[in-house]
Fold:
Amino acid sequence: MKTYTNPTLEEIKSIIQRPVFSTDHLDAVIQSVFSEVESTGDQALKTFTSKYDEVELDQIIVSPEEIKNAEKNIPVELKRSIDQAYNNIYQFHKAQIPQIVEVVTQPGVICWQKPVPISSVGLYIPGGSAPLFSTILMLAIPARIAGCKKIVLCTPPGKDGKIPAAMLYVASLCKITHLCMVGGSQAIAAMALGTESVPQVDKIFGPGNQYVTAAKLHAFKLGKAIDMPAGPSEVLVFSDESGIPEYIAADLLSQAEHGADSQVIFVTTDENMVTQVEQEVRSQLELLPRKEIAIEALNHSSMVCVPDVNDAFNLINDYAPEHFIIASDRADDYLDLIENSGSVFIGNYTPESAGDYASGTNHTLPTAGAAKAFSGVNLGSFYKKITFQKITKEGLTDLGPSIVHMAREEQLEGHAQAVTRRIKQ
Amino acid sequence: MKTYTNPTLEEIKSIIQRPVFSTDHLDAVIQSVFSEVESTGDQALKTFTSKYDEVELDQIIVSPEEIKNAEKNIPVELKRSIDQAYNNIYQFHKAQIPQIVEVVTQPGVICWQKPVPISSVGLYIPGGSAPLFSTILMLAIPARIAGCKKIVLCTPPGKDGKIPAAMLYVASLCKITHLCMVGGSQAIAAMALGTESVPQVDKIFGPGNQYVTAAKLHAFKLGKAIDMPAGPSEVLVFSDESGIPEYIAADLLSQAEHGADSQVIFVTTDENMVTQVEQEVRSQLELLPRKEIAIEALNHSSMVCVPDVNDAFNLINDYAPEHFIIASDRADDYLDLIENSGSVFIGNYTPESAGDYASGTNHTLPTAGAAKAFSGVNLGSFYKKITFQKITKEGLTDLGPSIVHMAREEQLEGHAQAVTRRIKQ
Structure:
């Protein structure tokens, strides 16, 4: 890890800089995937699956029986763990149920805002070496609480043409309505356009590689909502002198093991911490099965010592970390300084992995500085808010002249007449 | 207007179909605008303004004195109208202030979600024949209530190198922090990238032509948040036999006068209504200064008579109108049938123009069916929600084993160790 002590403004700029991942070069590929899926539907999906996942599928949809049977095929301890996580995530998201807001803005003029669930949502879960069942919990639990009617989940099948039992179990817990074996940009195209097996959805959620990201951006251009832009995962750990180097190093490494492109930053006001954490990182690294990946991530990571807490939080808010750990006994004192972050982990006993799996918060979070304007996935992500207004004749008689003046100033006489015709004597 | 009675499924599909506006052909132009603005900043903006708005600007920023003086330069009746609209919009948005949600998900595990205002936002207001001061009210009032620190407004100058007095007055009411004379895609580029005069922002709001839309999509790809995709404005009016043809026609025309690409649909369960509304449209059309524009819009608009209310609402929810007027004495009876709409206008005395200007609701709304998943601009659009979690050692001791099981199932040993190191005896 590169170490900075009292970095200059230029250095800070380079510390908080993310690698730029443009997907522009994929535009042509993505467009051809979308047009294939549009013209031949399921057939296109099966052909892509055969090519990229090396599996010949008869059926894209996983049968309800198979999903139901999964419960028997996973270890009881894993099942119990998933159930505990489910409960915490369910409780935290359930508490976020949005309310109707109603205001009588003036006599005879009532306005309200009503949250209405998005009717059909699509959840994408990447494949790869391990079954990412935790992301199903994070996306499907709030969809279920909101009351989305169709919850479509797409994930690529394994080489055996199947979905791992842990994922099937979570899909059954969360009552996924359509579990589809299809991955990559073709899965996003299928949910954006609809095929014989995969229903068209209104909003697409979930992480993925650059093809998936490019496909989600393409779907956005076609008018579909998406959860957020996605980039490599990140953690920033801040500590004063009361942090515990062993835990800090473990947190940095838990992020570094995600992928070679993971972003890991340690910021402290205590110079001794830098040396101690560095030593811990070195020794703990040896124990990790994914050591090689972690080393690559650490090679472009930074440890920064700044003169005081304000400098630290200026840097942190500029960086806007996806995950932000405050490794300190006085963590509460710093909370008001936080302006930009996806999710915050407070104190020496709150590792990022708690939020990754089971504390209750969502782990689908904005990366690459998007936390300045984007929220992580939350219950509200599964609703749209519709506004209503109801005006009485008396209300319109009072408000009407203002509407007429403003409409005429904007040269929209038709707008004025829609009022004058209603309030003429 | 094309008339359908008891349309077939195929016909309904064509009625609800929007014209597809792809901005792909503008990608190269937009990229060159962004790279010009990135490399030469204000100079690029001045050059574009000279080329497209035919004005040579010394200063891009409008001075605080000029903004302050605007109050004296607008008619007192217009000022009073704007003030009334301001108060209603302020009240309705103020009532939407989001709260912290806190849950103890299990003993020793506290999670909360905190809404935090987006620090800097950019509002785009198009130029053109009339000053669109109403859109400033709609975007700047919630930004101000949320507490955004920088509220940057970009709008092209008139041929006289100035901003109309009504817009300056609204800018002063809403305490815009940076009022910039720059329009088109270069304004979006300036807010996305920052220049000497125009501050970089985290989220960009506001309507515009296809260049502005393409530039907003480009900014989104660069990681900036945007309010929503934008398309031509729309109204759908539904009526049973208790609607008033004169008012319905006026509402249809108030949308049609917006632009030749405006979308106007009338749906009714009463066949007599079709003839009566058609007659009214024809006679009222003659009185509109923007008659030619309205005729073009009406040429691709539809009147649809369906057998019953359920058919009507199936069509309406599939269409997901930006503006939805229920022209009926029994409007309240239909409200529960609404699944998708931007803003709803209830009863015979609630014209769309009330919401366009002054009822209190926002007029920046999702078009082209985006109302299925997008909300109109609302107070929440100016916040992101940060999650927090705080776990005690005892809490982690109880939750830890579940995290460890799940992390190991996902083959992330580092995630497991971040827990085991903290709860080892």
Notes: Chain A has three domains: 26-226, 231-375, 392-424. The two ends of chain A are 78 Å apart (CA to CA). The domain at 26-226 of chain A is CATH 3.40.50.1980 (Rossmann fold). The longest strand of chain A covers residues 109-117.
